[in-house]
Specification:
Length: 138
């Protein structure tokens, strides 16, 4: 069984191999520079690209802890958390980004879109590989 961030997968060896190969260089960068927020952001983006949103959110949380004045890291975290269905976490991340860059129209739009989707009752879509892994018997 392979552990990817907060998710353990025991199925689809082809998918796991493909994701691990895709994130290998970013993981190596984190290993070389464990205090680099940029390295954690790149690793998170690689996981998010493969729809491993919980793994991505774990690495983005590390990135914002290492570099708390980086609005882009908070924006990415908000985007990823929205995909996992964490509305409160999404709001906190966008609010933190807007506190750093209050005039950023893109950040404000993201927060406004989240508020509108909550009013409309939309449910965010979680990453498919993680959702399948979490539904599988352990």
């Amino acid at each position: 069984m392979l552990s990817l961030g907060l998710v353990s997968l025991s199925q689809s060896p082809e998918l796991l191999a493909r994701v691990e190969a895709a994130v290998a260089s970013q993981r190596a960068a984190v290993d070389l520079e464990p205090q680099s927020a940029a390295a954690y952001r790149a690793l998170a983006e690689a996981y998010a690209q493969h729809k491993f949103m919980r793994a991505a959110s774990t690495h983005l949380a590390t990135a914002v802890a290492l570099e708390p004045a980086n609005a882009e890291a908070y924006r990415l975290l908000g985007t990823v958390l929205r995909r996992t269905g964490d509305e409160a976490g999404t709001r906190r991340a966008y609010d933190a980004a807007l506190a750093i860059e209050p005039g950023n129209a893109g950040l404000q739009k993201g927060l406004d879109d989240l508020r509108q989707s909550i009013r409309d009752g939309e449910v965010p879509t979680a990453g498919a590989p993680e959702a399948a892994a979490e539904a599988a018997p352990k």
